[in-house]
Amino acid sequence: MLWLTWRQHRAQILVTCGLLLALGVLLLVSGLRATAYIADQAPPGCPGPAAACSGVNSTIYDDYYYPVFMVFGLLPIAGSALVGAFWGAPLLAAEFERGTGALAWTQSVSPRRWLVTKLCLLGGMVVAAALLLSAMIGAWLPVFRDVIGDRSLEPGTFTMIGVVPAAWWLFAFVLGAAAGTFFRRTLAAMAVTVALVALAVPSVFFSRDSYAEPVRTVTTGWMALYQSGGTLVAEAWVDPSGREITEPPAGACPPPPGVDARSERAQLLKDECLIDEGYRKAVYHHPIDRFWRFQWTETGILLAGALVLGGLTVTRTLRHRR
User: Fold this and answer.
1) What backbone phi and psi angles, to 5 degrees, belong to 284?
2) CA distance 130 to 13
3) Which end of the chain is less congested by CB atoms within 10 angstroms, N or C?
4) Do 34 and 144 touch, CB atoms closer than 8 A?
5) In whole angstroms, what is the distance from residue 199 CA to residue 210 CA?
């Protein structure tokens, strides 16, 4: 079975290895160049939050971080879609389409064993590839932590690090295999897989805040809270009596004469005035220390989905293999 799996799927395996190598080189070069720039050009104490570091921070962000992040920012959808379309969809659809399944499933190896072995072998390779990519991105991000802070819970970053990428790739792979056994045409299975992945990824993104009850923090230092690396769910004002309101009363703390009411300075002055009058902000958020809780929650959801799809794939293939 190992030899047969390699012979049938070596193209996907080799292309995936090549892409991982290319992405690894890109990350390595980006990290080394940023490190060299910091060592040669950055003033003492930079990069960091100090005002004197703003120029260095901007250069590191614009020249070394953002261009590479844009490549990896596509991975939550593109990576899963490619795995589903090129690893999962052809697995069974191609067998039905070419009629080779009839030969494979009449040999000494039972159809059930043939199917489960191939799903497990290829699924294991997909998981290993995703974990390798996650580890490479996880080693690259700390180079920029003093510039961008800890963004582990931001949707784009969250889906690229930890164990979630492996769960997404495995889910997409099994989804593609299920589409193959239902549609029995490779192109149709690939198209359906890409469409379903494109629907699933944003659906999970937007439901992530519901993984846990948000923490409610009443504070005057909400900017520090925003920059602490967690995710903001909602916010409201708390008046001096302790009542939560959407907005302070109209006319409260108007901007001083000569200050444009729409300017950032006017907003800062208004916030300072409201604090002086006893107002606070209630911030509903998920702190950064919930990263692994959310990672395992999302992984569990995706693994459950993959298990259900895998069961459907095996059952339908065995019942309708002719």
Assistant:
1) -100, 120
2) 13
3) C
4) yes
5) 18
The CA angle 150-156-161, to the nearest 5 degrees, is: 65
| CA 174 – CA 156 distance, rounded (Å) | 23
pTM of the model: 0.87
Per-residue pLDDT tens digits of the chain, which is 322 residues long: 677 777 778 888 999 999 999 999 999 999 999 999 998 888 888 888 787 888 888 899 998 898 888 887 777 778 899 999 999 999 999 888 887 766 666 666 787 888 888 899 999 999 999 999 999 999 999 999 888 888 888 888 898 999 999 999 999 999 999 999 999 999 999 999 999 999 999 899 889 999 999 999 999 888 777 777 788 899 999 988 889 998 888 778 887 777 777 777 888 888 888 888 899 999 999 999 999 999 999 999 999 999 999 999 999 988 876 6
Which position has the token pair 């990069």? 47
Place of tokens 């890409």: 194
Amino acid symbol at 11:
A
Residues 219 and 187: their CA atoms lie apart, in Å, by 55
Q: Decide: 318 and 111 in contact? Cβ < 8 Å.
A: yes
Torsion sign over Cα 83, 87, 88, 94: positive
Number of residues written out for the chain:
322
The pair of structure tokens assigned to 141 is 């991000």
